[in-house]
Amino acid sequence: MASIDICSKQELTTILERFKPQRDNLLPILNEINKKFGYISPVAMMEIAEYLDIPVAEIHGVISFYHFLSTEKKGKYIIRLCKTISCEMAGKEKIARMLEKELGIKFGETTSDGMFSLEYTNCIGMCDHGPAMLVNEKVYAKLTPEKVIEIVDELKKRGQL
Question: Where does [2Fe-2S] cluster bind (predicted)?
Protein backbone atom coordinates (compact mmCIF):
# COMPACT_ATOMS: atom_id res chain seq x y z
CA MET A 1 0.00 0.00 0.00
CA ALA A 2 1.26 3.46 -0.87
CA SER A 3 2.54 5.55 1.98
CA ILE A 4 1.24 9.01 2.61
CA ASP A 5 3.76 11.68 1.61
CA ILE A 6 4.47 15.00 3.32
CA CYS A 7 2.19 16.92 0.96
CA SER A 8 -0.65 14.47 1.58
CA LYS A 9 -0.05 14.66 5.33
CA GLN A 10 -0.46 18.45 5.15
CA GLU A 11 -3.70 17.99 3.20
CA LEU A 12 -4.85 15.48 5.79
CA THR A 13 -4.10 17.94 8.59
CA THR A 14 -6.01 20.66 6.73
CA ILE A 15 -9.05 18.39 6.49
CA LEU A 16 -8.89 17.48 10.18
CA GLU A 17 -8.62 21.11 11.24
CA ARG A 18 -11.91 21.90 9.50
CA PHE A 19 -13.67 19.78 12.11
CA LYS A 20 -13.83 20.03 15.87
CA PRO A 21 -12.10 17.07 17.55
CA GLN A 22 -15.39 15.42 18.50
CA ARG A 23 -16.41 11.81 17.97
CA ASP A 24 -19.56 12.79 16.02
CA ASN A 25 -17.32 14.29 13.32
CA LEU A 26 -15.83 10.89 12.48
CA LEU A 27 -18.05 10.14 9.49
CA PRO A 28 -17.75 13.60 7.89
CA ILE A 29 -13.95 13.43 8.32
CA LEU A 30 -13.78 9.95 6.79
CA ASN A 31 -15.95 11.08 3.90
CA GLU A 32 -13.73 14.11 3.21
CA ILE A 33 -10.53 12.07 3.32
CA ASN A 34 -12.02 9.35 1.11
CA LYS A 35 -13.06 12.00 -1.43
CA LYS A 36 -9.66 13.70 -1.38
CA PHE A 37 -7.41 10.65 -1.57
CA GLY A 38 -9.75 8.01 -3.02
CA TYR A 39 -9.31 5.84 0.07
CA ILE A 40 -8.42 6.02 3.77
CA SER A 41 -4.88 4.82 4.45
CA PRO A 42 -3.64 3.27 7.71
CA VAL A 43 -1.68 6.48 8.33
CA ALA A 44 -4.84 8.54 7.90
CA MET A 45 -6.68 6.24 10.31
CA MET A 46 -3.97 6.74 12.93
CA GLU A 47 -4.05 10.53 12.48
CA ILE A 48 -7.83 10.56 12.81
CA ALA A 49 -7.66 8.32 15.89
CA GLU A 50 -5.21 10.67 17.56
CA TYR A 51 -7.20 13.77 16.57
CA LEU A 52 -10.55 12.40 17.82
CA ASP A 53 -9.05 10.34 20.67
CA ILE A 54 -10.77 7.14 19.59
CA PRO A 55 -9.32 3.69 18.83
CA VAL A 56 -8.09 2.91 15.30
CA ALA A 57 -10.17 -0.29 15.41
CA GLU A 58 -13.33 1.79 15.79
CA ILE A 59 -12.37 3.86 12.76
CA HIS A 60 -11.65 0.74 10.75
CA GLY A 61 -15.03 -0.66 11.80
CA VAL A 62 -16.85 2.44 10.55
CA ILE A 63 -14.95 2.33 7.23
CA SER A 64 -15.75 -1.34 6.69
CA PHE A 65 -19.45 -0.75 7.51
CA TYR A 66 -19.98 1.94 4.86
CA HIS A 67 -19.65 0.72 1.28
CA PHE A 68 -18.64 4.12 -0.06
CA LEU A 69 -15.58 4.32 2.20
CA SER A 70 -12.49 2.27 1.37
CA THR A 71 -9.11 1.30 2.77
CA GLU A 72 -7.86 0.48 -0.73
CA LYS A 73 -6.99 2.92 -3.49
CA LYS A 74 -9.68 2.95 -6.17
CA GLY A 75 -9.84 4.32 -9.67
CA LYS A 76 -10.44 7.94 -10.57
CA TYR A 77 -13.85 6.81 -11.78
CA ILE A 78 -15.68 4.36 -9.54
CA ILE A 79 -18.46 2.68 -11.47
CA ARG A 80 -21.10 1.14 -9.22
CA LEU A 81 -23.71 -0.97 -10.98
CA CYS A 82 -26.97 -1.50 -9.09
CA LYS A 83 -27.48 -5.17 -8.25
CA THR A 84 -31.08 -5.10 -7.02
CA ILE A 85 -33.82 -7.33 -8.45
CA SER A 86 -35.42 -4.51 -10.46
CA CYS A 87 -32.14 -3.74 -12.25
CA GLU A 88 -31.57 -7.47 -12.65
CA MET A 89 -34.94 -7.82 -14.39
CA ALA A 90 -34.20 -4.77 -16.56
CA GLY A 91 -31.00 -6.28 -18.00
CA LYS A 92 -28.25 -5.63 -15.46
CA GLU A 93 -26.25 -8.67 -16.58
CA LYS A 94 -25.78 -7.36 -20.14
CA ILE A 95 -24.58 -4.06 -18.72
CA ALA A 96 -22.17 -5.83 -16.37
CA ARG A 97 -20.65 -7.89 -19.20
CA MET A 98 -20.29 -4.77 -21.40
CA LEU A 99 -18.58 -2.82 -18.61
CA GLU A 100 -16.13 -5.68 -18.03
CA LYS A 101 -15.45 -5.96 -21.77
CA GLU A 102 -14.93 -2.21 -22.26
CA LEU A 103 -12.71 -1.79 -19.22
CA GLY A 104 -10.89 -5.13 -19.39
CA ILE A 105 -11.48 -5.84 -15.69
CA LYS A 106 -13.91 -7.83 -13.56
CA PHE A 107 -16.14 -6.45 -10.83
CA GLY A 108 -14.10 -5.75 -7.72
CA GLU A 109 -11.04 -4.75 -9.75
CA THR A 110 -9.34 -1.49 -10.78
CA THR A 111 -7.74 -0.88 -14.16
CA SER A 112 -3.93 -0.94 -14.18
CA ASP A 113 -3.81 2.77 -15.09
CA GLY A 114 -5.88 3.61 -12.00
CA MET A 115 -8.67 5.19 -14.04
CA PHE A 116 -11.60 2.84 -13.34
CA SER A 117 -12.88 0.65 -10.52
CA LEU A 118 -15.86 -1.59 -11.05
CA GLU A 119 -18.22 -2.50 -8.20
CA TYR A 120 -21.72 -3.69 -7.53
CA THR A 121 -23.87 -1.65 -5.18
CA ASN A 122 -27.25 -1.97 -3.53
CA CYS A 123 -30.22 0.12 -4.61
CA ILE A 124 -29.42 3.61 -5.83
CA GLY A 125 -33.08 4.64 -5.98
CA MET A 126 -33.55 4.27 -9.72
CA CYS A 127 -35.69 1.12 -9.66
CA ASP A 128 -38.12 2.48 -12.27
CA HIS A 129 -35.25 3.49 -14.58
CA GLY A 130 -33.05 0.40 -14.44
CA PRO A 131 -30.59 -0.84 -15.13
CA ALA A 132 -28.75 1.99 -13.43
CA MET A 133 -25.26 2.78 -12.24
CA LEU A 134 -23.29 5.50 -10.50
CA VAL A 135 -20.04 6.89 -11.84
CA ASN A 136 -18.61 8.54 -8.76
CA GLU A 137 -21.69 10.58 -7.73
CA LYS A 138 -23.41 10.88 -11.13
CA VAL A 139 -26.37 8.59 -11.90
CA TYR A 140 -26.81 6.90 -15.28
CA ALA A 141 -30.17 5.18 -15.83
CA LYS A 142 -32.00 3.15 -18.47
CA LEU A 143 -28.66 1.75 -19.55
CA THR A 144 -28.11 -0.24 -22.72
CA PRO A 145 -24.86 -1.88 -23.82
CA GLU A 146 -24.50 0.88 -26.46
CA LYS A 147 -24.99 3.59 -23.84
CA VAL A 148 -22.31 1.97 -21.68
CA ILE A 149 -19.81 2.16 -24.56
CA GLU A 150 -20.58 5.88 -24.99
CA ILE A 151 -20.23 6.58 -21.26
CA VAL A 152 -16.94 4.69 -20.93
CA ASP A 153 -15.53 6.35 -24.08
CA GLU A 154 -16.46 9.79 -22.71
CA LEU A 155 -14.84 9.02 -19.35
CA LYS A 156 -11.68 7.77 -21.07
CA LYS A 157 -11.49 11.03 -23.05
CA ARG A 158 -11.96 13.11 -19.89
CA GLY A 159 -9.32 11.07 -18.11
CA GLN A 160 -6.72 11.90 -20.75
CA LEU A 161 -7.05 15.68 -20.24
Answer: 82, 87, 123, 127
